[in-house]
Specification:
By secondary structure, the chain is an alpha+beta fold. It has helices at residues 10-17, 35-45, 90-93, 123-133, 136-140, 142-145, 149-154, 173-176, 179-189, and strands at 32-33, 51-56, 59-64, 76-77, 81-82, 97-102, 105-111, 160-165. The strands form three sheets. The protein has a three-stranded antiparallel beta sheet. A three-stranded antiparallel beta sheet has the order 6-7-8, with no helix packed on it.
Length: 197
């Protein structure tokens, strides 16, 4: 996938630029699209014909469409890259990283073409995800986002390395205003929120 200059940390740029596999936009699972992301893309493109509905956890959720007879994302151009890059879904932003629910806990993984790599350099990237992109709206969708049904249904197998558990350290203010709702959400996510000192 083509990236804007300076958009990602050096280690990540090196990881992607040295990859000889097909782009994540043309040979991977179609990304999950949250309700909020759907509205943003709809406003940006003036169309709503870019998703398909799929049942996840007994609810219909948005999945990005691919081009006809292809695994390539409808917004991807092999020459120009992604046409919605600035508002691409969270699922696209974090690739080749992802969040899986492993043993009941949300866990960072990286799709690894080189399983013998030293992944210590990824810590700063994961921290930036958690502070900048892991917002209350994203957290609300994690049960669907991390559901592995999409992977199972695809019939594809992707090698990955487990990095560490997701840290829910920076919850948006609007997520903390209602303590009752917060406790309910924490229970549903089965995570512990550590207050910043």
């Amino acid at each position: 996938m083509k990236m804007l200059e300076g958009d990602k940390p050096n280690g990540w740029n090196k990881l992607c630029s040295s990859c000889h596999a097909k782009t994540c936009c043309s040979d991977h699972l179609p990304p999950f699209v949250s309700n909020d992301e759907f509205k943003k893309i709809q406003e940006f493109t003036g169309s709503d014909d870019f998703v398909t509905l799929r049942e996840i956890n007994n609810e219909l959720k948005y999945i990005m469409k691919t081009k006809r007879n292809s695994d390539e994302c409808i917004f991807f151009d092999s020459e120009k890259g992604c046409s919605i890059y600035q508002i691409r879904p969270f699922d696209c932003k974090i690739f080749p990283f992802d969040i899986y629910k492993i043993n009941g806990e949300y866990t960072w993984i990286v799709y690894a073409c080189n399983p013998n790599s030293n992944w210590k350099w990824t810590e700063s990237i994961l921290e930036s995800f958690e502070s900048e992109w892991l917002t209350s709206k994203t957290i609300d969708e994690l049960e669907y986002f991390t559901n592995n049904e999409r992977l199972d249904q695809s019939g594809k197998a992707f090698g990955y390395e487990i990095l560490r558990k997701v840290k829910f350290l920076h919850i948006k203010v609007d997520y903390q205003e209602n303590r009752s709702d917060q406790k309910k959400t924490i229970k549903s996510l089965n995570v512990t929120i550590k207050n910043k000192k």
